[in-house]
Amino acid sequence: MATTLPKTDVVLIGVGWTGGILAAELTKKGYQVVGLERGRGRSTSDFIMVHDELRYALRYDLMQDLSKETITFRNNDKMRALPMRQYGSFLLGTDLGGSGVHWNGQTWRFLPYDFQIRTMTEERYGKDKIPEDMMLQDWGITYDELEPYFDQFDQMAGISGEENPHGGKRSNPYPTGPMKHTPVMTLFKEACENLGYKPFTQPSANLSESYTNPDGIARAACQYCGFCERFGCEYGAKADPTVTVLPVAESTGKFDLRTHANVVEILHEGNRATGVRFIDVQSGEEFIQPAEVVAVTSYVLNNVRLLLQSGIGKPYDPKTGTGVIGKNYAYQNMCASTTGFFEEREFNVYAGAGSLGMCVDEFNGDNFDHSNLNFLHGANIFLGQLGKRPIQNNAVKPDTPSWGAKFKEESIKYHNRSISFNAQGASMPFRYHYLDLDPTYKDAFGNPLLRMTYDFKEQDNEMSKFMASKTEEIMKEMGASEIIVMKEKGPYNIVPYQSTHNTGGVIMGDDPSTSALNSYLQMWDFENIFVPGASAFPHNSGYNPTGTVGALSYRAAEGIDLYLKNGGSLV
């Protein structure tokens, strides 16, 4: 029998970026907040001198255990979905801080076009430009309305960068300057300028200099060690929830963090949540945590699954187009992967940082004319010097044998004579791209797994071919003697790794019939449930999602405060 705990003001389901930001902001305002994290606790001390590529990059030490909980996947509803048994296309973080610990730190603001994408597309190109099965919709909030929350996230995390000439207007400059420019970045920058583009340094949550944020949290500068992606930062230089927002929440004395607490159900009476039921995964004990507000703050896929599992919101039905939970799943179109081989030049690509790089944005969003193109939106072209690691990064030409003396010879020759970059493209929502509960497979607790139905569309292929022509042009201008470029995409597969940028499923908007959340990330039909995070995105942009996730989290924190102050109303 479950033990019922004392009621709290707010309960958080997951303590990563979204949960951490809510915890900090709400406890500062005096609310009692309980954070339920199903994984372990952790801090920077866990990562001191642990540059272990095998453990973290290849054996996924910071990721969810797929033998206990995974997803099932299919390309279309005529296929049987099968469980993802090993990591490939994307990585699901776990433990305190979640994916905010193992991320690279690439911190973007979505474009003004993104938030009003349907309206702006129809105004410029007409309604016929949008395919009939593309579920494109505005977000219910504009860039200008969200900009103060973007700025709040930048200031908290100490984002390093310089002005994006094609981005939205900023109320303040980046709190820290751009990261160092390497010879590879300089070569890319010069090539782009020769082609008439306006390159700029990528915005980064890897600090370019020591920084103290408005909450008084001081962090050291990045050491360019190259162990960011799939790793925790031993210096605290990479902004993550455990070194930024969670210490603030803990210092108030009003934050109760409980690790190893796996939430399996949101409890509700009628259209109002009463709390959550969770299992202590160490003891097997079951608890009920009553709360005035329930904030669903875990990873995208887990947010959707928990709502469906709890019978909250109307599940999306692709056949009728009705329902909202599971709707508008979108991924990321990582396209135009381009590698250049240089015979006469050598580069040190083993030093780096997760968000060290140069970009051009001329072909992102609606920054260019799509009148004669068979796709919408676009991609950010970026050369990132993340720091190649010796096991996983070994570029050789396509005709090289995969083993033996020749393979070793070519590996040694090109380990410092090859450069790669690609285009990170937007992912548009389609009618038959969605998330629901699998009718067959269950997790270790006997609950249904989440089922993903998704495939690349002609939209993605057309964007890939267009972007490939641009990346190849840049690489040629950089002086590569041989260029290998991926120009088309095959069917989507759950392997190999592509991007962890899953979005959608609990989307925001201005119409309860087509969206699950209002602009404060509050559910339309369950007024005391808030669901911030990338699950709220109606589509995915040509950028990494974390900056926009952060902005929406600050917006949600404000919404919860208004809700609690006004006795259930946001106005």
From TrEMBL:
Domain of life (superkingdom): Bacteria
Keyword Oxidoreductase: yes
Protein name: GMC family oxidoreductase
Domain Glucose-methanol-choline oxidoreductase C-terminal: start-end pairs: 438-552
Family: Belongs to the GMC oxidoreductase family.
An example Gene Ontology molecular-function term: oxidoreductase activity, acting on CH-OH group of donors
Record-linked Pfam families: GMC_oxred_C, GMC_oxred_N
Keyword line: FAD, Flavoprotein, Oxidoreductase
InterPro entries to which the protein is assigned, alphabetical: FAD/NAD-bd_sf, GMC_OxRdtase_N, GMC_OxRtase_C
Species name: Ureibacillus sinduriensis BLB-1 = JCM 15800
Location of the Glucose-methanol-choline oxidoreductase N-terminal domain: 178-329
